[in-house]
Amino acid sequence: MAGPDHLFAELHRRHPDVDLVLLPPEPPRTDPDEAATDADLADARWRTASALRGLWTWLAPDSPVEAEVRWSYAADDGWVRPLARVVEKRPDGGSLLLRLADELDSDGWDVARPDGGLPRVVAVLDGLRLVGSWAEPSGALVLQVEGDPSFVGRDRAAALVRPAGRDGEEG
């Protein structure tokens, strides 16, 4: 199996006019001295949910679908991030994504429209990351906003991140 160096060597061979810069991997995150407080977590969850709900209300004001808000594990052990998601089958999902991308761009989000595969929008603003996609065959429009990760420790992370069907808040 070829490694990443082989991949980039091949890319450079095919496109010698493109400058490639490979950065070293980021070192693992070190845990802070203190875990996020309940107030910190409530604020992060509210901010993430509010961002998605505001965008969804603007984009699909007549939709009966409510956003799901939960905690998910972040990349590092003991870290979680708030995640808000809405899924609705819509025949106009592609055009809604285009409208959303234009609106996000005009509101100061850093917007990308990745090529290939499903129509998608990826946008970042002030610690929030939005990913929107639409699958034409099924009509499924998915919008997801995730917030910055918070350190809570391994046990608290397990308590916050619950199996599907739970609301993600500590009991």
Keywords:
171 residues; alpha+beta; seven-stranded antiparallel β-sheet; disordered C terminus
Question: In words, what does this structure look like?
Answer:
The protein is an alpha+beta fold. The protein has one domain. 32% of the residues lie in helices and 25% in strands. The protein has helices at residues 4-14, 38-59, 93-106, 154-160; strands spanning 68-73, 79-89, 110-112, 120-125, 128-135, 140-146, 150-151. Strands 1, 2, 3, 4, 5, 6 and 7 form a seven-stranded antiparallel β-sheet that branches. Strand 5 (128-135) and strand 6 form a beta hairpin. The longest helix is centred in the N-terminal third of the chain and has 22 residues, at 38-59. It is flat, with a radius of gyration of 19 Å. The termini are far apart.
How are the SSEs ordered, and which strands pair?
Elements: H1 4-14, H2 38-59, E1 68-73, E2 79-89, H3 93-106, E3 110-112, E4 120-125, E5 128-135, E6 140-146, E7 150-151, H4 154-160
Antiparallel strand pairs: 1-2, 2-6, 2-7, 3-4, 4-5, 5-6
Question: What is this structure, in a nutshell?
Answer:
Helix content is about 30%, strand content about 25%. Strands 1, 2, 3, 4, 5, 6 and 7 form a seven-stranded antiparallel β-sheet that branches.
